[in-house]
Amino acid sequence: MPGHRSFGELIAKMPRKAQEEIKRGTAKILAEMELAELREALQIRQTDLAQTLKTTQAAVSRLERRGNITIGSLKDYIEALGGRLELNAVLPGHTVRIAHALKGGADLTGRITIHSKGKSARTIQRKRKAAQAHGARVDT
């Protein structure tokens, strides 16, 4: 139709700062999804997921609406969708991948990856030694 423009054309005419803000907002929306939204984006029905999880459709529905979910339940749900759950602790100056929380049983050893942002070598060495003392494998 004459006089009508696509959304992409409208964004292209916006100031660069506004375009970048829209991109950040879009990335944030795509990076944060509720479980049901994720399942729907993958075009998987609750009944099919329930069959994979060996449970009922009602149980899947409750899980998706629950505000507090165990890591084990979340891991099973994500794996039933065909994915893999990764758990990270984002701390000032570094990110730690929490591996032991995703293992079965009571094994508390894990793997810690330290991503340094301006930390001194001495600080990183101290953290590496502390983690290794607790039986963790450390990567930098």
The CATH C-level class name of the largest domain: Mainly Alpha
Low-confidence stretches: 105-114
CATH architecture of the largest domain: Orthogonal Bundle
Give the biggest beta sheet. 2 strands, antiparallel
| Tally of individual domains | 2
Task: Work out the helix count.
Answer: 7
Structure, explained:
- It is a single chain.
- The chain folds into two domains: 7-80, 434 Repressor (Amino-terminal Domain) (Orthogonal Bundle), CATH 1.10.260; 88-139, no CATH class.
- The chain has 140 residues and is mainly α.
- The chain is flat, with a radius of gyration of 21 Å.
- It is 49% helix and 10% strand.
- The N and C termini lie far apart (56 Å).
- α4 packs across α5 (57-65).
- The strands form two sheets. A two-stranded antiparallel sheet has the order 1-2.
- Residues 105-114 have low confidence and may be disordered.
Quick structural gist:
This protein has about 140 residues and is mainly α. The chain folds into 2 domains: about 5-80, 434 Repressor (Amino-terminal Domain) (Orthogonal Bundle); about 90-140, no CATH class. It contains 7 helices and 4 strands; from the N terminus they run ααααααβββαβ.
